[in-house]
Amino acid sequence: MGEFDLIARYFTRPVRRAALGVGDDCALLRVEAGMQLAVSSDMLVAGRHFFEDVDPRHLGHKSLAVNLSDLAASGAKPLAFTLALSLPSVDEHWLQGFSQGLLALADQHGCELVGGDTTQGPLNICITIFGEVPPGQALLRSGARVGDDIWVSGTLGDARLALDAMLGKVHLPPDLFKVARQRLECPTPRVALGLALRGIASSALDVSDGLLGDLSHILKQSLAGAEIDAEAVLQTMQARQSGLSLPDDLWCQCVLAGGDDYELAFTAPAGAREHVLAAAHSAQTRVTRIGRVTEGQGIRLVDARGQPLARQRWNSFDHFA
Ligand code: ADP
Ligand code: MG
């Protein structure tokens, strides 16, 4: 099968919202008058971001999910995406699974595949996604104010625990491994929550490299510090509820610096708690209040009684560190 048959067979579908999809030099997107276009790219490299033998259906899902997660963090509504794919060879079983996982999630969010590029080379997947947001309503990293609450959506840490299990660093009972692996391989982008938080959250980002590191991006851009209740964050982790016994340091590493969570971390004024909870309810997404924005710089971790915890080496992921 050649390059163009491959594109026609696995990545070409009739477009609905876009004016022109796959098949010409450019796709043409219809953008509603007065809206801003939100754009983001994410690259997934075999051996770096995923195991080469991962279920291709899950990989297709995750490749788009991490991009949808960026739109969610900006409060943008998904429109369309392009797919740049480098493949070692034409493996139809792989292409079938990958495209199904990818397009099923795309359909869930009404986000159309409108173009891309296909080359032979090491397995590498790069998606650029387009969304729309009314001017002035995008959620930014820079809007947190001293006194705001800090919230996270969903559950943190389980993806990292699954990765540690796959690398043989911890042993998990099979049912727990299954749950954690699902979080690693099939994250749920919080698009509905991001949309519901427009006008409520003062800042937001998605947690991809680990909570503390990602939160520090909000704090730097907002010129503030934070106090985080470590126990409140630990309670979000699904594996934590299972009675599994692990060293404290490992729990903290997973939850505070694990990465691959694709949850939203956001701030909102303390007076907006009811609105945050209503937004979460409407988006059918759990949210947990984990701390507050403070004067100064950096993150102070405290226990449930507000006593400071020693900050350990819970470094977030950095490709070049
Ligand atoms: P060009 O050489 O003009 O950049 P190509 O010949 O590479 O275009 O691609 C032909 C068409 O197929 C284009 O419309 C391009 O957007 C689309 N395309 C290529 N690869 C993919 C892919 N992996 N997924 C979706 N569309 C693709
Ligand atoms: Mg061209």
Question: Would you write up a description of this structure?
Answer:
By secondary structure, the chain is an alpha+beta fold. The chain folds into two domains: 3-133, 60s Ribosomal Protein L30, Chain: A (2-Layer Sandwich), CATH 3.30.1330.10; 149-302, PurM-like C-terminal domain (Phosphoribosyl-aminoimidazole Synthetase, Chain A, domain 2), CATH 3.90.650.10. It is built from ten helices and ten strands. The strands form two sheets. A six-stranded mixed β-sheet has the order 6-8-5-9-7-10, with helices on both faces. The protein has a four-stranded mixed β-sheet with strand order 1-4-2-3. α3 links the parallel β2 (77-87) and β3. α2 (56-74) packs parallel to α3 (92-108) and α4 (158-166) crosses α5. The N and C termini lie far apart (41 Å). The model has no long low-confidence stretch (mean pLDDT 95). The chain binds adenosine-5'-diphosphate and magnesium ion. The site of adenosine-5'-diphosphate has 13 residues, from α1, β2 and β3. It catalyses: thiamine phosphate + ATP = thiamine diphosphate + ADP. Residues 146-302 form the PurM-like C-terminal domain. Mg(2+) 1 binds at residues 41-42, 117. Residues 23-133 form the PurM-like N-terminal domain. It comes from Diaphorobacter ruginosibacter.
The count of β-strands is 10
Structural class: alpha+beta
The coarse overall form would be globular
Mean pLDDT: 95
CATH superfamily of the largest domain: PurM-like C-terminal domain
Query: How many structural domains are formed by the residues?
Result: 2
Name the CATH architecture of the largest domain. Answer: Alpha-Beta Complex
Number of helices: 10
Give the CATH topology of the largest domain.
Phosphoribosyl-aminoimidazole Synthetase, Chain A, domain 2
Bound small molecules, deduplicated:
adenosine-5'-diphosphate, magnesium ion
Biggest beta sheet attributes: 6 strands, mixed
What integer value in Å does the Rg equal? 20 Å
Question: What is the strand arrangement across the widest sheet?
Answer: 6-8-5-9-7-10
Strand content bin: 15-25%
Low-confidence stretches: none
The share of residues in helices is 25-40%
Distance linking N and C termini: 41 Å
- What's the SSE pattern? HEHEHEEEHHHEHEHHEHEE
- What is the name of the CATH class of the largest domain? Alpha Beta
Binding site for Mg(2+) 2: 42, 70
Binding site for Mg(2+) 5: 209
GO molecular function: ATP binding; magnesium ion binding; thiamine-phosphate kinase activity
Family: Belongs to the thiamine-monophosphate kinase family.
